[in-house]
Amino acid sequence: MLYTLIHEPSRLGLRVLGEFCLRKEKMNYLIFLLSVSATWSLAEQPNILFIFTDDHAPHAIGAYGSNLIQTPHLDRIAKEGMTFERCYVTNSICAPSRAVILSGRHSFHNGQMTNGDVFDGSQMTFPKLLRKSGYETALIGKWHLKSDPTGFDRYEVLYGQGSYYNPRMKKNGKEVKHVGYTTDIITDLSLKWLKQERDPEKPFMLMSQHKAPHGRWEPALRHLGALDEVEIPEPKTLFDDYAGRTSSAREHKMGILEHLGDKRLMLQYSSQFTPEQFKVFDGYFRPRNQAFLAKREAMSKHELTRWHFQRWIRNYLLCTKAVDENVGRLLKYLDESGLAENTVVIYSSDQGFYLGDHGWFDKRWMYELSYRMPLLVRWPGQVEPKSKNRDLTSNLDFAQTFLDLAGAQADPKMQGSSLVPLLKRNKPKDWRKSLYYHYHEGGGHGVARHEGVKTARHKLIHFFDKSEWELFDLKNDPDEMNSVYGKPEYAKVKSKLLQELKRLKKEYEVPAIVYESHKEIQAERNKGG
Ligand code: CA
Hints:
single chain, 529 residues, alpha/beta, 4-stranded antiparallel beta sheet, 36% helix, globular, binds calcium ion
């Protein structure tokens, strides 16, 4: 507050002082107090910096206990704020997760059920409501929702998935080309907006969103070889045989060895490099690729899996290393500018990811490691440093949280709950005890459509196209290796979870059409315009 008084008097105090002078003759003291209180509350609207990545699993972040890489700048947010240990996505895939965050509504209500859908930008979203409440809003980086962004005073977004080098971006409707490493460029543009382009009279909400560490994993030139001397620990489930689950897990197409493929392993590059960049990038990978190809025939399946894992995970982790460095740049600017004190910094990613766990490299399943999202929040003076939260939370809550931070009203159609009470260690007594999950995009990487319910200890999954069920006891089986569905000793738990699933479907108004084929869903949607 002292900072606001000194540095931003136009947002505080002047109006109060003026009103005081004008009315001092016959001032009603109560009205004055109310005026002070209203102005005070407006002035306290904190800035919101939302740093968001794509496919960044919590177990690749130091604050979540990663043994794979160090992330000092992300860990700083955790040290100075709160780590949410049980934040889950409603539908574990890229574009749908983003649409849930914007709209605060489940995929079947916001219309973005799969990556193939086009986001309906005419619907209510939290940036639109923040603008109404006096915020300046900006979106810089990955968008991935096909339609043009709405609700932002300024946007500059990657086309589609974007590339790791030399990205083409769309800036308020016009194409702009950049040269350099995309993770750095997104931060450069974010800093430029913060320093020079925003309106300093207004509180801001900036979404600074990275492509990284989404495939195909191309590290920055400065990081090539940085993990060559490190043997990354293999996950204990790297050689999972899926024996304890239904046919769904066995029919996956996301195996580190079988499906990652040579292309994705950097034997072919996806970025359009400049000649100078190509010289360094290709100069690093080509001799290593040639050495691998020369011995590939003689390698056993186990050896090949291990080689693929090491090659891939190093590239993935190096992409996150650039993210971490760039988070550090943003935090440094907030410190230097004095903005840190009144800015809520949030770090998250659209879902988790399998980092060789279960032998996989992708997401989509309701199994823990791609279901869980990272969520770190720093809010000076409000959130206790080094605090941890283990309540069930979700990306469905983000929109209402941002609006609550701003003191703005949420849209009545939003389906989550503000996390602000949890941030202030003031958990409502009726906080949710379960979460509803629904994966709509059947087929991608061999993952069948499914829905389910999760509680603090158990998880029930229904692969409804296959009429297969799985039930996991996460206390006894945290790696979800053995479904106990059908085991007599779990009959009571199963019955309770089935009831809870039914209740959640009613609460969230899950329409019957979502269980029909994709073709029928499209026809129904077209009918509705
Ligand atoms: Ca993603």
